[in-house]
Amino acid sequence: IDSDLFLNYYFIFFREISQRTFVLIQKAMNWTDAREYCRNHHTDLAMMLTEPEARDLWTVKGPHRVWIGMYREPWRWSDNRNSSFKNWRDGQPNNYLAVQYCVFLNLDYTWGDDDCTKMRSFWCQTGDKINYFHRHISNAEYSEFRVWRRNSG
Ligand SMILES: [Ca+2]
Asked: Where would I find the C-type lectin domain in this sequence (predicted)?
């Protein structure tokens, strides 16, 4: 291998943790199709495991009764995580007619359980995912990077 050519093959590696954002999708879909849509176009249906996470949504107004990423049995988030945080409206979940296995968000951000086949708008979330990527760097950039590394400990 020619040494000059060899020295040009440096790569820099990045790890990026993107911030989560909630995205309202104003298309009516059943819960399962809504989840599929979110996974294809974003990350997943919206999940809020703690009150602070739920509050991120309280600053925006969505329509009434929008699917979020919670279902059962037992109650769990779309990616199978569990959380003690719940925000049920009084009297919910009531599993009315024994067909209510999916969760929607009311205008006041409380939750209700409902029939998963009902067609509703839904909240997706995007981000909250670790991305790894790399980029080729020139010999000169590599030298600079080494200096920067040395100076930044
Ligand atoms: Ca209900």
From this structure: 17-125
Q: How many domains does the chain have?
A: 1
Query: What does the H/E/C string look like for 39-106?
Result: HHHCCEECCCCCHHHHHHHHCCCCCCCEEEEEECCCCEECCCCCCCCCCECCCCCCCHHHCEEEEEEC
Residue 131 CA, ligand 1 centroid: distance in Å: 38
Domain extent for 77: 3-151
- Report CA(116)–ligand 1 centroid distance (Å): 11
pLDDT digits (tens, 9 = 90+) for 76-94: 999 999 999 999 999 999 9
- The rounded distance, in Å, linking the Cα atoms of 66 and 94 is 18
Query: CATH code at 14?
Result: 3.10.100.10
